[in-house]
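Lab notebook, bench 4. The sequencing result for the construct came back, and we need a structural model before the next group meeting so we can plan mutations. Quick request posted to the team channel:

Model the 3D structure of this chain.
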Amino acid sequence: MEAVSVELPQGRVEGQCAPAFRPVLDAFVANFRKRDEVGASVCVVRGGETLVDLWGGLARPKQNLPWTRDTVSIVYSCTKGATALCAHILRSQGKLDIDAPVAELWPEFAAAGKASATTRMMLDHSVGVPVFNDPVKPGGLYDWNYATGQLAAQSPSWAPGARNGYHGLTFGWTVGEMVRRASGRSLGTFFQDAVAKPLGLDFWIGLPEAIEPRVAPMLPFIPAPEAPKRRFMRAVTEQPDSLAALFLLNTGGFTQGGVNTREGHAAEIGAANGITNARGLAGMYAPLGAGGGELVDAATLAGMGEVSMATHEDATLLIPTRFALGFMVSMDNRRRVPDANASVILGRRAFGHVGAGGSIGFCDPECGLGFGYTMNRMGEGLLLNDRGQALVDATYRCLGYRDDAAGHWRK
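Done. Here's the predicted structure in token form:
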């Protein structure tokens, strides 16, 4: 790889990039110059070789502090990929049967009509507890026992498995509690022991206090007053009892500023508060793109990216969605004009997860790819916006893929 140093209006882009992947560098720089990027990182790994490792801009713009090689940030729902991977590792080890009743490991979850629930349903967002039904107490999401207790006791929004609706926050405690019970360790501890430490990743679910100085605070997306409201946001603002509103607002303060607090970083919120950078995301997915490595066996890997649930209208997000077992796959909603940035266009066999504001990590076993992109300025939309998609598109073109007209990248 070649060393990179590019001056920006604020800060600079640094890192390394293989000459054949210069278009990814160009797209990354364009994000700062044309798409209002503030601070970000991108990493591409293929077959164990790092081809792109870039970072740049400002981590803390008010203090004019640069985004450095070791800067990390919350990656929101990209955390779901890490939590799902933990479940699949335990499945591969024979310690978690994802098709057995959840109640075999978590008897309390069978309450209120959920006896038929399985971990598979938890992974593909069909288990029926997409939100907390009752008001979450202040700081409730930082209390594991409180959160899991609430979900175990509440009635499902639909019969488990009958339909799907994005479990935007609750995924972290449904799947996460199965990881805890199957492994005997907390989700964050198991992730460190089974994934982050063996792979040498700066990636945490439950951040140690010593890492706090490296964290870039998230900058919220503020829509223009004249911008049209997407259907999801209309539900949030006009229907307070909707799943959309409960997902976004009934969080005990976490989504109202807690993401930038020590408490919000230290908690283990397996759906939303993983902290890493692009190198961490790409490094986690790289072994999966290359056959599973030491993480999972071939049979487990073969099923991880298969579509398990798809719908024309997700009960929470109110857009068409497609999910594998704990992961997103390519979702093409580009023709839904009222719902801009509601797509993520990947390869046919790729699977991973986006995070609120536009971060993404994924693998593509078809081409041996591991990819990560993180940032601190959140963008609009429910899935990828033009910054992350531009980097994904450039990567696929560098790998010889010719177009995405089919709803996924193809050669």
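The mean pLDDT is 96.
Will bring this to the meeting.
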